[in-house]
Amino acid sequence: MKNNNLSLPVHSHRDRKGLKLIAADKPEMVIETDITDITYIPTGNGMTYLMCIKDIFSKEWYGYNYNTSCTAKDAINAVNDAIMRKFQGNVPEGITLRTDNGPQYISREFNNYLKLMKIRHEYIERETPTENGDIESFHNSIKTDYIWVSEIDNFNEGKTVIENAFYDYNNIRPHSTLDYYSPKQFLDKWDNDSGFREYYGEFLNNMKDSYRRRRNNYYRRMRINVP
Fold first, then answer.
1. Using the 8-state DSSP alphabet, how is residue 196 labeled?
2. pLDDT tens track for 15-53
3. Torsion angle of C-alpha atoms 6, 37, 145, 4, degrees rounded to 10
4. Higher pLDDT, 128 or 168
5. With contact defined as beta carbons under 8 Å apart, do 122 and 98 qualify?
6. Percent of the chain whose pLDDT exceeds 90
7. For the domain 2-136+153-173, what is the CATH code?
8. Where are the domains of the chain?
9. 3-class DSSP state for residue 173?
10. What are the C-alpha distances in Å from 97 to residues 79, 82, 92, 101, 152?
């Protein structure tokens, strides 16, 4: 791990099985990141790593850390970048960060930082990646829409690609789960249009019902017990 800049101190891992995850029903409630599906970006000068923080509800990409290492300090820098960009350094009361159980996120250094910032830390269960499927889908979009279509020769070029992706993803790119608004457009509607908030609640429920039906039909075809 040291050769790949991935080493860090880790505290003892507690059994978190059975803990219920918070369901976000508004922006700035639950944010997330995921080390399992971290974006590895090869360049002509070696491997680089992108760690992102995003809002579960609004899909807004809050911030990130792009570096040649992937340590607990880099994870802290990603959260700090999100706090500075989105909240100008003032963490909203009651905000939760959801992560997987990667070594960066169970490290003492990372958790001490979250306590200092008064950010609640929520883990998905081990071997349950679907609980963090939203961030994995996000990482896949970043890779396919911005990174894999670019030729990145060095770290500085990578920084430019990521910063352009950050702007485009939040301000221009439409999202099907946001009724084809960009995150910034969605937040403007959410904050200023009570009729839209009511409409979007129904829109989300319809999407969830459709997903459950497709999932259950798949399970039945595959003869899998529906959870």
1. H
2. 444 445 556 677 888 888 865 557 889 999 999 999 999
3. 20
4. 168
5. yes
6. 56
7. 3.30.420.10
8. 2-136+153-173
9. coil
10. 9, 11, 12, 12, 31
